[in-house]
Amino acid sequence: MKLFIKNIQQLLQVEETPKKWVAGAEMQKLPAIENAWLAIENGKIAAFGKMNDWPGIVDWRNLKVIDATGKMVLPAWCDSHTHTVHAASREKEFEMRIKGKTYEEIAMAGGGILNSAHKLREMPEEQLLADAQLRIDEMIAYGTGALEIKSGYGLTMEAEIKMLRVIKKLAEQNPIPIKATFLGAHAIPAEYRHNRNAYLDLVVNEMLPRVAEEQLAQYIDVFCESNYFTVAETKRIMKAGAAFGLRPKIHVNQFTAMGGVQAGVQHHALSVDHLEEMREEDVRVLMGTSTMPTLLPSCSFFLGIPFGPARKLIEAGLPLALATDFNPGSTPSGNMQFVLSLACIKMKMTPAEAIHAATLNGAYAMDLGHDYGSIAPGKTANLIITRPMESFAYIPYAFGSNGVDQMIINGKVHG
Ligand code: NIG
Ligand code: FE
Predict the structure, then answer these.
(1) Nearest bound ligand to CA 249?
(2) Is there a smaller number of Cβ atoms within 10 Å at the N or the C end of the chain?
(3) Ligand 1 in reach of 254 Cβ (< 6 A)
(4) CA gap 70, 68 in Å, rounded
(5) Sorting pLDDT into bands at 50, 70 and 90, what band is 296?
(6) Which class is 78-364 in CATH?
(7) Residue of 153, 330, 331, 339 to mutate, ligand 1, most atoms within 8 A of C-beta
(8) Per-domain residue ranges for the chain?
(9) For ligand 1, is residue 251 a contact (CB within 6 Å)?
(10) Which CATH superfamily is domain 2-76+373-414 in?
(11) How far from each other are the two terminal CA atoms of the chain, in whole angstroms?
(12) What percent of the chain is predicted at pLDDT more than 90?
């Protein structure tokens, strides 16, 4: 099966030499070919170039041709931080926040993560799977072509395993890559409120070996935050995860800068995510490391908390990734286009910087950079063909509307 896309107004994020990520000032420029063609064979990008230099089609058998006149073609979004599997929405908390309650106050009053965990424990696996599939269908329609999903709404052995099995089934039944992260340390469940060490023991000594044995996760996560898990506890869990080959991708500095970034760097985290509260030393410690800072602007938007310091990170020469954080409490949306709009409007990233952060850098943050996140020969053809537009800046500019015309997944037209 071959696909040939011709007359592409701009083919974006093309790579001559494969890069692991794009950082600092380099993010300003989005490599592009004007008036381009792209050839795909067996699901992989085979070749591309300028229409003027097109060598012509030799073999028309099994070939589908798409005319992309006036449209952009770019790699599909790589959403490296989500909680796409969850049991129910939380509009009651939404209303409480509108009336002035904070995320913390709502959690103290029986809402928050524990509310979600309560509901997830009751929900049958089939229902969780069906609901998450609907969310993924919508995410792909908005341009997502690779995804990470966390557990963390079970908080018992049985319910965490149930969540991770659902994520595994989603990975099997979807055409896009889905990576799984074990987030047993998302909150201390109510039944362990007066005995948090017993819960940590359960996560480290029982849940983690079972997750590893059943090969249910590639990464380990902790919500390192006041009233959730301390830096010392976070280190303990990262160390335990490493013993089973799970690299950390952790929640840090969402409400409190308390040393979570340093802990992540020390334990070679693949990414440190949230970063709404960053001190100078938290930015500095990331320099020269292999850890991807990941910002989640739709969480800031929804909770009304500060936006991550994208400009400071970029000015320090660092890369950064953008992700949705899709979850029922702080970000009830898996729309990466909206994330790009917020990155530009609220964090002052340019459209080119935002596209780098949402493609190649997101792919790095889930170890998928070798095969996704850019237009390069041999990479999997998970692509967005946009609606006709003047320039790629229209994608974040026209917030709220869907700029995707067609999705190409594994070299085939999706949907
Ligand atoms: O990434 N911060 C921790 N976890 C989620 C929110 C969890 C919830 O409120 O259900 C987040 O924002
Ligand atoms: Fe999250």
Answers:
(1) 2
(2) C
(3) yes
(4) 6
(5) very high
(6) alpha beta
(7) 330
(8) 2-76+373-414, 78-364
(9) yes
(10) Urease, subunit C, domain 1 (2.30.40.10)
(11) 17
(12) 96
